[in-house]
Design goal:
323 residues, seven-stranded parallel beta sheet, 38% helix
Length: 323
């Protein structure tokens, strides 16, 4: 028996649910048998296209609104009984270099809005999505949940502050809230346009559209890339077993450097041209090598090999992006 009421039959709210990870979570919640999944997303990076599969079920309702605004959340809660909330709302890491204060504020404000609703018994359970960025560069490896939090960007600082808010509300008000901390997600639906795109999608876009891939900095920055479907699977399973106030890393065993990653993408996409060197990004995390020992103790943990997941992801981009 799990610690919580099964997700099947529940009415669930996903903040940021039209985004990359959020939309995959919405799909999975519907497959789990949720009676209704409500999504609030301001489409800052998300897209209604990401919800096409969910909306086709007739059990998903989309609110194009902003979870930073208490009135927007109040509107939903006044009209719908909600059992569980998954908080995926955020703004991309790269955005913090353009608007550092707002990137910080978004991460904190949405979490506080939800926690205030929860302590007033508006819903039962909160699953909050943190990020590996709260750790900063590794002080020791592999990075477990006890690793010091040392955020290097305002995006990460906002996420770290939100984590602390979750933990304090659990202690102060005994709310049922826990934290999942995914490392570097990749997969279909990740934004590939503009300054806010991640390294895998923007590299695919450049190759498909006849541009040259770019390598920022030395390329020796390491990341722990995890396929988005594996993250969602872990979150669904952790819902049953995570204690209130708990934080759990969701990661793989495949630390690779950005240079190695670009080489893999070029090989899979038959690109033989030049990779252009660009200056490194200030405050870039140098090393992310995660420990997934805790999550493996808690759930039946399955992972997609990077080669396989990357191949599926690049195929999706080939289908989506016009040369």
């Amino acid at each position: 028996m799990g610690k919580r009421t099964p997700l099947a039959g529940q009415r669930i709210l996903v903040t940021g649910g039209a985004g990359f990870i959020g939309s995959h979570l919405v799909d999975r919640l519907l497959r789990q048998g949720a009676s209704r999944v409500l999504v609030i997303d301001n489409l800052f990076i998300g897209s209604e296209k990401n919800l096409a599969e969910a909306m086709a079920t007739g059990r998903c309702e989309f609110f194009c609104d902003d979870a930073e605004l208490p009135g927007s959340l109040a509107y939903i809660f006044e009209r719908h009984r909600i059992d569980t909330v998954f908080n995926c709302a955020t703004k991309a890491l790269n955005y913090s270099f353009l608007n550092p204060a707002n990137a910080f504020a978004t991460n904190v404000t949405v979490a506080l809005n939800l926690l205030e609703l929860q302590r007033r018994n508006a819903f039962r359970t909160l699953c909050h999505f943190s990020t590996s960025e709260v750790y900063g560069s590794a002080v020791y490896e592999p990075m477990d949940e006890s690793h010091p939090r040392n955020p290097t960007t305002t995006y990460a600082a906002g996420k770290a502050a939100a984590d602390m808010a979750i933990e304090s509300y659990v202690r102060m008000f005994d709310v049922d809230a826990f934290i999942v901390r995914p490392f570097n997600n990749y997969g279909p639906r990740q934004n590939y346009l503009g300054l806010l795109a991640g390294v895998i999608p923007i590299t695919a876009w450049r190759i498909i559209t006849g541009r040259q891939p770019e390598l920022h900095g030395s390329g020796e920055q390491s990341r722990d890339f995890i396929y988005v479907h594996d993250t969602v699977d872990a979150v669904i399973k952790l819902y049953d077993v995570a204690d209130p106030g708990d934080s759990v890393n969701i990661s793989t065993d495949n630390q690779v450097t950005v240079r190695q990653l670009l080489q893999m993408i070029c090989l899979k996409m038959d690109y033989v041209g030049e990779i252009v060197s660009k200056p490194g990004r200030k405050s870039d995390v140098l090393c992310h090598n995660a420990s997934n020992e805790k999550v493996r103790r808690m759930i039946d943990y399955s992972l997609t090999p990077l080669e396989e997941g990357l191949g599926q992801t690049l195929l999706w981009y080939r289908e989506q992006i016009k040369p």
